[in-house]
Model the fold of this input.
Amino acid sequence: MTISSEKQLISVIIPAYNGVSRYLDQAIQSVLEQTYRYVEVIVVDDASTDETGLLVARYSVRYHRRIENGRQAVARNDGARLAKGEFLAFLDQDDLWAPTFLQETIAAASARSDTAAIHTDGIQVTEQNETLHYDAAMKHTNSITQILRGGHDVATSGSLFRKRCFDAIGGYDEHLSIWEDIDLAIRLYQRFPIIHLPKPLYRHRLYGHNASRGIPSERLLLGQQRFLEKHGSVCQKGSREARALKRDWAHYYGDLGKHYLRQGRAKDARQAFWQALKQHPLNHKAVLRLLRSFV
Done:
């Protein structure tokens, strides 16, 4: 069933933390420059310690400040509860939208009233907004994170969500410190159709100090562990999902071993690398890391 998209309110939620130095003004501006005009903008200040409130006051947007820092999932859920729109769009404070992002995604969503989300391709950029590479939003890899959502890489800043579907699954899991966006996509995909719009309609900044590019912190490791434990229960023994889960557990234990080595805990690192090999015996990286832990 096709529904006119002209008067469907979209609630745009921007979670912000110390946004003065993290491009929040550019994110807000990219929303205000959208060709689709039936929009409310909600900035959720996640207990910033800078003058984020004063920055937001320059714009005609709604502002909600949290007393305590709750991180991304909590801030996004706060914004969703405040939202009045039929659709939700979450834009990270350091990302940007193409001017037609909302216009094109709402049109696609309106063509299918049963869809939970429309997600688009993107462009990875530097901190200075210089193009790095095209990021296609369908990724059919052998990772459990991709298999359980049918390859739909539903990027937070590159998606439009139908609010009733978002609410039906309980929003973001606030107990996950990482991959809360992947978890959301998995739970949506299990219950509703998701549509991929193959156009590069958002820009995502990459940082040189990105935690995912080095040795994960204890917080990130804990989040990864919780994610794998949460979704491992649906993987039947011998299935493609179960094999992918083993590989992902091997990757987790490899990261855990590196974390221990950085702390000088060689014995704990060796145990972690052994666990990685148990999960994935042909993992040559785990073998090399195990040998290196004795040196």
